[in-house]
């Protein structure tokens, strides 16, 4: 059991920020008892984005911090990989063995044989990104992160030219809020806070657009349930109606966009009837939606990460952003669109990441293709050496990565050394050679920025960790010493020293007192009234799909990805998704569950109890045809693999669409394999990504 070092003074309240991979980055107030243990976690009421509201899973964070299964000591594998046999090892010996394995891998195959692998288990800039400093210092293989933002952010950049948008707090001043591609009730509760406020105070209409009847749909006034991957068709039909019926703001278009005449001509055949055949909506649904947003000046489009999980997600995001542009919604308070504010913060992370000694000629490997990389696929390896040593922090690829059978096969290699620094014995940690116990966010210092809002938030150490547990930064620093690069810039600095380097002078002291800094940009900039982010100041209806600058653009060693030649000249439905066929009559979407966050919280008792068990949602008409009832075991599969799940027959799923909410551990499933055996790692055009919600499958009663 994890018992924090007692604080014998008095109960108190600490301030922090949620570290998890969610755009809200909630400002937190943490109850701390006289015994030095945390209690309930609350949303900070004084923060006008968090507004006192957080999700239930973070509110009960003490359940995770003091979980009896938390890792508390370094361990070394005994016996076969994944067999679950471990021996204790000291921190010094564990770090020595990791360094020796890295040196051995480099001697045999070159530095690129070592692949430091990480992601967003924490969004803190110090504890997450310091692994990059070690990578660059040693010229280890690069990490091209593709599992989350790429298609959505690329689509934003194609249209807007920068990753900013209307302040999400303006939703409270909107008359119509379109929540598109995100189940905000389950995954980003603060969006609903501001949307519900607008409905209560202004009578605003809430529109939800998604691929099944989510909890957010149940809060909406209008719900549009699309076939997966068809969002762009709805956007194009709504723009067609806007031009046809006079809702398009032609003066705005002439001033702020690149080719409105070409767009109007292109959309002439993108009628509601055309879109209905693609989306599965009725013509009336599409006409009514187009009329609502076309006649409501203050319409706010809140565009989520559902776009990023589809093979045509980049095109869909660009098309959805084109709709408020045709309507001229950006001109009005409470109008316009928002996806992320990632470009507003002005935080310089170069020293944390060791950017000064990064070598662009070193190969970068695709995060999503870890299965292909570890099983020796030449293309995935960029025709370079095999990966024979890894350090993994902040991610659980044996559970969350696509093409799971390849992933597990790769991790089972006897010539692959893996060290995992983790909080629990995840399924990735179970396949490791060395496991190191990691701190949680209230046990170390870090700095956070809220891409779904505009605050920079300090996350100071609030309680003492168990004495045998270490921070991510500690591991990186100790390995740097053993590997001979600790003299390089950025090493040897404390968390607070590194935090100070990403802020402006005096801001760390400001954060100590004020807890957060609002980087809100001026109204004219947020609404692009001074021009969009491209050199010509225009919104681009005609994207440069392969030439656009973007933080998601692959390194030169990777190049343009996916079927980029098939991307359309103007906003359009792009049929590069995994379409159903006779052998695979269903589309499968692997959406997030309310009580999990990626694979985090899947270990806590309350989250597991609330979710029940892994299930697949199937429409009653499909179930009747197949003779399936709720509770029956069904088998679903495709060319990548197959697995068994319990069926839940519900009208929340569309006909022909299956929903498997998660992410459950693989071992929670009937056959020990999770839903990602069915997901693919082929690249999303043009800048990469993984179509995790874009799968064709068959289903039979088991």
UniProtKB/TrEMBL annotation:
Pfam families for the chain: Molybdop_Fe4S4 (PF04879), Molybdopterin (PF00384), Molydop_binding (PF01568)
Which keywords, in A-to-Z order, does the entry hold?
Answer: Iron, Iron-sulfur, Metal-binding
Record InterPro entries: Asp_de-COase-like_dom_sf, MoPterin_dinucl-bd_dom, Mopterin_OxRdtase, Mopterin_OxRdtase_4Fe-4S_dom, Prok_Mopterin_Oxidored, YoaE_C
**What PROSITE patterns does its record include?**
4FE4S_MOW_BIS_MGD
Coiled-coil segments: none
- Where the record annotates domain 4Fe-4S Mo/W bis-MGD-type, the positions are 11-69
Q: Where are the transmembrane segments?
A: none
Q: Which family does it belong to?
A: Belongs to the prokaryotic molybdopterin-containing oxidoreductase family.
* Stated name of the protein: Anaerobic selenocysteine-containing dehydrogenase
Origin species? Rhizobium aquaticum
